[in-house]
Write a structure and sequence with these properties.
This protein has 14 helices and 26 strands. It is of the alpha/beta class. The chain folds into two domains: 106 residues, Alpha-Beta Plaits (2-Layer Sandwich); 407 residues, 3-Layer(aba) Sandwich (Rossmann fold), CATH 3.40.50. Strands 7, 8, 11, 12, 14, 16, 17 and 22 form an eight-stranded mixed sheet that branches. It has a four-stranded antiparallel sheet with strand order 2-3-1-4, with helices on both faces. A three-stranded antiparallel sheet has the order 5-13-15. The longest helix has 19 residues. The termini are far apart.
């Protein structure tokens, strides 16, 4: 039987570029998006048209069809059988191919024998606040974090990536109406043949209610009395087999939080395959579409990623940074030891551990509706139901220069920053069919709710400054930005008693990074100095 042709993406990058974080120079100026610095990033992922043309000619000689090509990131998309693709490109030591590539390295993730891990959403949706807890909404969170007022993200495009399920704006008009907000502009983009297939709303509602993670009834925020939660606590972790439901719920949560905090921004939801190339393509497409901020609430244990798959995603993240796009990833929900198969190993989640992501950990607001403004590392639950802010040190990435004065380890430390992730201080969410008067009232949970908070704040600051913040970590680690961050000094992300790491402490830490935002102060810290000062 003749082998069926496949469409395959070949990624071409300058050879020997090493770890991107060690090769990229520190910028000299203070501009949010420094053109010279962005050019230095582009040089890490750009190849010449001559190399692409030579690779294309070799592909044709082996009976492959050329679909497309681009210089940054260097890319050639071909169609043909796996056998023909392997014959043309798989052996980089072959003399003719080595000469053709002219010092260029070729990645072919589609042909890597070790598959990329399947990313999972970092939303837990495993509980609601205890009985008597006052309702806490996304606008309440914005006030708690002192987000700059009179800004709504107008003129900004925020991207959300989903690697499964899909997105439908079910119940969102009611949700935003209850908060006194407008229905935002939302567009769904299917990437590279992926299909938008959201799970039915009834399935999401039933799951949440069956596991004790929602109160079914009218939307709580529409009640002028702002009723307290009737009762809750921890339900259970969502089963890994329910991925379509998890991804669909993740998308709804991301958009509800993002658009409640930056109501005037356009939101673009990218549906893509749950592969390294799927993520690479989605990031690339979002950047090309003109998004200024990306919010990504998912990942998997870093050690499960083959180097070729990571390099492909890193190429896309470097491309985003070179184009002035802020990319926020969640840090994970299983503390410092996220792998049940290796419960004693200190591990982190990728892509959050990439040096080219703003990695967002989790906090627990002790009294979200009271006078106590205390905040600790997110860590709650008991036994097998314990969850905490993901954090620690990468096993594959060296310490980037922007962490030199903050991180004593010689490895990339995560998270960079944090915000509310606890179910006991979660913000109100509404899962319902369009036009329905009743639905599932639930609360945001997990570091997947932290990524959209930081993405929304970046969009607001972009709007005010009338320019893109771009790659945010290099600015946040500067001393001048510290006045816009509240360090988290209490708590830990230990979920297994026999592994006693990590604990919060002054300065950057592997639980909550540099801390949570103080919105107006951060805006002032990132604004250019006034003329003459």
């Amino acid at each position: 039987m003749e082998e069926k042709p496949i469409r395959c993406t070949l990624i071409l990058l300058p050879r020997g570029r090493g770890e991107l974080d060690n090769r990229c120079p520190a910028p000299e100026g203070d501009a949010a998006v420094d053109d010279a610095w962005c050019d230095s990033l582009r040089a890490l992922i750009e190849v010449s048209r001559e190399v692409l043309d030579a690779a294309g000619e070799r592909a044709r000689q082996h009976g492959l069809h050329i679909i497309s090509s681009r210089t940054a990131p260097g890319e050639l998309v071909v169609e043909g059988t796996r056998a023909r693709i392997r014959a043309a490109f798989e052996d980089p030591s072959e003399l003719g191919l080595r000469d053709l590539l002219q010092g260029t390295e070729m990645l072919i993730p589609d042909l890597v024998e070790v598959e990329a891990p399947r990313n999972a959403p970092h939303t837990l949706l495993f509980g609601i606040p205890q009985a008597g807890t006052p309702l806490f909404t996304a606008p309440d969170l914005a006030r708690f974090y002192e987000f700059p007022e009179k800004l709504d993200g107008s003129g900004q495009k925020i991207g959300v990536i989903l690697q499964g399920g899909g997105f439908a704006p079910s119940g969102l008009e009611t949700y935003f109406g209850c908060l006194g907000l407008s229905m935002p502009a939302i567009h769904v983009v299917e990437v590279d043949g992926a299909v938008n297939q959201p799970a039915p709303m009834k399935q999401i509602q039933k799951l949440l209610c069956d596991m004790g993670a929602a109160e079914f009834g009218p939307p709580k925020a529409c009640d002028a009395s702002r009723p307290d939660w009737k009762g809750g606590g921890i339900g259970q972790h969502l089963d890994s087999g329910l991925m379509d439901i998890r991804w669909t719920a993740e998308g709804l949560m991301d958009v509800q939080i993002l658009s409640a905090l930056a109501n005037g921004a356009e939101v673009r939801v990218y549906i893509t395959a749950n592969t390294s190339i799927g993520l690479y393509k989605a990031i690339q497409r979002a950047v090309d579409d003109g998004v200024s901020v990306l919010s990504c609430s998912f990942g998997s244990v870093e050690s499960s990623w083959d180097a070729k798959h990571r390099q492909a995603v890193d190429a896309a993240l470097t491309y985003a940074a070179s184009q002035g796009v802020t990319v926020c990833f969640s840090s994970g929900n299983h503390g410092s030891t996220p792998d049940n198969r290796r419960p004693e190993e200190l591990l982190v989640s990728y892509p959050g551990s990439s040096p080219w992501a703003l990695c967002c950990g989790g906090t627990w607001i002790l009294s979200p509706s009271g006078n106590d403004r205390g905040e600790e590392v997110w860590n709650e639950g008991h036994g097998q139901r314990r969850a905490a802010s993901g954090g620690g040190f990468s096993a594959v990435y060296g310490r980037p220069w922007w962490q030199d004065d903050h991180n004593e380890e010689r490895r990339r430390g995560v998270p960079d920053v944090a915000s509310n992730a606890a179910f006991s201080s979660g913000v109100w969410l509404w899962f319902a069919a369009d036009g329905a008067s009743t639905g599932a009232n639930t609360a945001s949970t997990g570091t997947s709710s932290a990524a959209p908070v930081w993405a929304a704040l970046a969009a607001l600051i972009n709007q005010k400054l009338e320019r893109r913040l771009g790659f945010l970590p290099r600015q946040l680690y500067r001393k001048a930005a510290q006045r816009g961050l509240q360090a988290i000094l209490a708590g830990n992300n230990i979920i297994r008693p026999h592994v006693q790491q990590y604990h919060a402490h002054p300065g950057w830490n592997a639980c909550a990074g540099l801390g949570r935002p103080i919105g107006r102060a951060l805006l002032d810290a990132l604004a250019p100095p006034a003329p003459g000062t």
